[in-house]
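Moderator note: this is an archived Q&A kept for reference. The question asked for a predicted structure of one protein chain; the sequence and the answer are reproduced below.
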Amino acid sequence: MPSSRRPRRAALLAAVVLTGVLANGGVTHAASDTDVLSWGADNSGQLGNGTTADRWSPGPVASLTRGDTAQLAAGGTGDDDAFVVARLSDGTVRAWGHNSLGQLGEGTRGDQAVPNTVVGLTDIAGVAAGGGHALAVDKRGRVQAWGDNNFGQLGTNRTGDVATTPVPVQGLVSAKQVAAGCDFSLALLEDGTVWAWGRGSRGQRGQGDGDLSADAVPQPVTGLDEEVAQVAAGCHHALARTVSGKVYAWGDNLYGQLGNGTTTGSGTPVRVRQLSGVRTVVAGADHNFAILNDNTVYGWGAGGSGQFLEDDAANHNAPVPVDALTGVQELAAGRDHDLALFDRRVTAWGAGGHGQLGDGTNVSRRRPVTSVRGSFEHVAVPLGGDSSFAY
C-alpha cells in the first residue's frame, strides 16, 4: 500500500535488517540501501554469497552494490545450471554461478559462488543470459557472446563448441538490445529490425515455419512489418513490442505463450491478441506479461503455479488481466515464480519450494507476498530456476 512515510522509514532503516510477521505468516525484510540481494535456490552458487545453500530470506550478493549495478540477467534451464551476469555502471561485466559451459566468461569451466569479472568486456550497454550462454552489446552496437554453442547460439558461424571468454557475434552492426532464450539469441538493431540465431526446432528464430534447423549466424526475423522497440526471449519463444505498442510472438506455444488464442507453434511472428498501448513486455520460460501505458498488466502462457494470481492456476492462450499487478513499477518472470516492484518494494508469488519468494518460508503462494521493503529499482529471475534478485 503506498505511503508518504515509506521513504523516510526506509532511510531510517538503511543499515539494519528488520524482521516482522506478515498476516500470511511470512517474514518481511528491510535491507541495507547498498546491497544487491538474492534468495532462493543456490545449487550452483547462483546467489553469489560464497555458498551453495538455499536461502529463504534475502541476503547480500558479495562485492556488489546497488549503486554500481546497472543490470542483472539471470540464466539457466534449472537450479543445477543457474548463473547470473551483472553489468556494472562502469561498463564492465561480472558473472557467477554454474560454469560447466563457460557461461561465466572468465576463461574457466568451474562454478563460481561469488562474482568474477568477465574477460575483455568494456563499455557494455546491455547483457542477456540464456540457458547456457550469455550476450553483451556495447555502446557502439557490437555484440559478443560466450558459453554454450551447441546450436550456434553464439553466432560465430560454428556449432558444437563452447567459448569460455567472449567472442564476436558475426554480421551484426548497430545493435541496441540483446535477449537470450534457452538455446537461441536475439538482437534488436537501431533500425528497428530483429535478428535471431541459434536453435530453431520450435520456430523460436522467427525465420519461417520451414526453417527449423540451427543457424550459427544472425538472420532477420521475417514478418515484422513495424519498427520494433523491444525484444524479450522465453525458453523457446520470443516477443517483440513495436513502437506503436503492439506485441508479436513466435516459437513454441505448448502453453499458449504466443497469446494468439491457440496452442499451435509458429515459426513466424503472430499478433498477440487483445493488446495495444503496451509499454513493456516481460518473458518468462513459458509465460509472459505486458505492462500497458495505463499501468494495467496482462499475462498469458503457462499458469500452473499461479503465475497469473488465479485460484484455478490455469494456462491462458490469450492475454488475461492481472488486476493485482496494476500500477507495478517492474516485473521479472521466471519458470514457476515471478517478482514485481510496487513503490520500490519487492513482492513475489508462485512456486516457493526453495524459498524463492523470500518470505522466510518454502511455501508456494497464489497471492503476492512482500519479500523486501526498501528502495529498489529492479528485480530479476532466472529463465528456468528458483532464485530471485533485487537491486
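Archived answer notes: The longest helix spans residues 6-12.
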